């Protein structure tokens, strides 16, 4: 598996292991897996993050989707709700394009997401200025690899 990751041959590995039907069910999976990991749009990390229900975003999400502006887990959860709402009605590629343009707040409003006044600042990102929008944590200096918050006790 590690060799397939390093050599960017995950599709072939899936086929050899009998998972070709699984990969056909996911549109554009082949293109995604054939793309160099640091050039994959970070929106797919956002989709993964939202599906896990986590409140500890990785660095590229802080930079690209405003999580670096969150001071506590409640703010992360509110941002998660907004992005989940948006992704119900648009494709990840559309959200990625808005990220690159730096227009996430406007797009969220257009998509009918309810954003409290106090949360508007959460949508301020640096993606369009730092070459962001891609899963390249080397350019994500605003968050350390440990995440935004200390682990909760209990």
SSE topology:
Elements: H1 2-7, H2 10-16, H3 20-24, H4 29-34, H5 43-52, H6 59-65, H7 73-89, H8 92-101, H9 104-110, H10 127-130
Describe the fold and architecture.
The chain is mostly helical. The protein folds into two domains: 2-34, no CATH class; 43-139, no CATH class. The chain is built from ten helices and no strands. The termini are far apart.
- State the end-to-end distance: 34 Å
Task: Label the structural class.
Answer: mainly alpha
Low-confidence stretches: 139-146
Rg, alpha carbons: 16 Å
Order of secondary-structure elements: HHHHHHHHHH
Range of helix content: 40-55%
Number of strands: 0
How many domains would you count in the coordinates?
A: 2
Provide a count of the helices: 10
Strand content: under 5%
Largest sheet: none
Query: What is the residue-mean pLDDT, rounded to a whole number?
Result: 82
Specify the overall morphology. elongated
Which tags fit this structure?
154 residues, mainly alpha, 51% helix, elongated
Short description:
The protein is mainly alpha-helical. Helix content is 51%, strand content 0%. The chain has helices spanning 2-7, 10-16, 20-24, 29-34, 43-52, 59-65, 73-89, 92-101, 104-110, 127-130.
């Amino acid at each position: 598996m590690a060799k397939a990751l390093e050599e960017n041959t995950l599709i072939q590995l899936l086929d050899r292991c009998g998972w070709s039907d699984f990969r056909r069910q996911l549109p554009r999976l082949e293109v995604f897996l054939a793309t160099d990991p640091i050039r994959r749009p970070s929106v797919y990390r956002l989709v993964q993050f939202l599906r896990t229900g986590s409140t500890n975003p990785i660095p590229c999400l802080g930079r690209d989707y405003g999580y670096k502006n969150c001071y506590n887990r409640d703010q992360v959860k509110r941002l998660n709700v907004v992005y989940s709402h948006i992704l119900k009605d648009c494709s990840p590629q559309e959200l990625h394009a808005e990220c690159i343009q730096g227009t996430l707040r406007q797009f969220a409003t257009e998509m009918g997401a309810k954003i409290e006044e106090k949360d508007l600042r959460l949508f301020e990102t640096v993606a369009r200025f730092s070459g962001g929008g891609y899963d390249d944590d080397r350019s994500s200096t605003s968050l350390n690899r440990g995440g935004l918050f200390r682990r909760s006790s209990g």
